[in-house]
Design goal:
Helix content: under 10%
Shape: globular
Strand content: over 45%
Number of strands: 11
Radius of gyration: 13 Å
Structural class: mainly beta
Largest sheet: 7 strands, mixed
């Protein structure tokens, strides 16, 4: 099993920045990618960003391109999400998730961290 613990959420004004962290522990040797998702009240969970664990290739949702940056520290088994120029519509619970092996599905999820952006 893999355990994921997110941190770094909070309340910020529009235009501000936050940095989320997600530390993975357990059977992480098979990690192929890690991703960030978010879920706003009354909405479905949506993809935000992902990063390949081997080569660092990244992908972003259109809504966050140019504002959010995903990065990783392979030694610490930690993934980060730097969020700049935050907007009220970025308000959501943010979840990190891990893929094990060459599959497209995410195998484990964190408990989530709340991000609230005030206008």
């Amino acid at each position: 099993q893999v355990q994921l613990v997110e941190s770094g959420g909070g309340l910020v004004q529009a235009g501000g920045s936050l940095r989320l962290s997600c530390a993975a522990s357990g059977r992480t040797s098979a990690t192929s990618a890690m991703g960030w998702f978010r879920q706003a009240p009354g909405k479905e969970r949506e993809f935000v960003a992902r990063i390949s664990w081997s080569n660092g290739i990244t992908a972003y949702a259109d809504s966050v391109k140019g504002r959010f940056t995903i990065s990783r520290d392979n030694v610490k088994n930690t993934v980060y999400l730097q969020m700049n120029s935050l907007k009220p519509e970025d308000t959501a619970v943010y979840y990190c998730a891990v893929r094990l092996g060459p599959t497209l599905k995410y195998d484990y999820w964190g408990q989530g961290t709340q991000v609230t952006v005030s206008s």
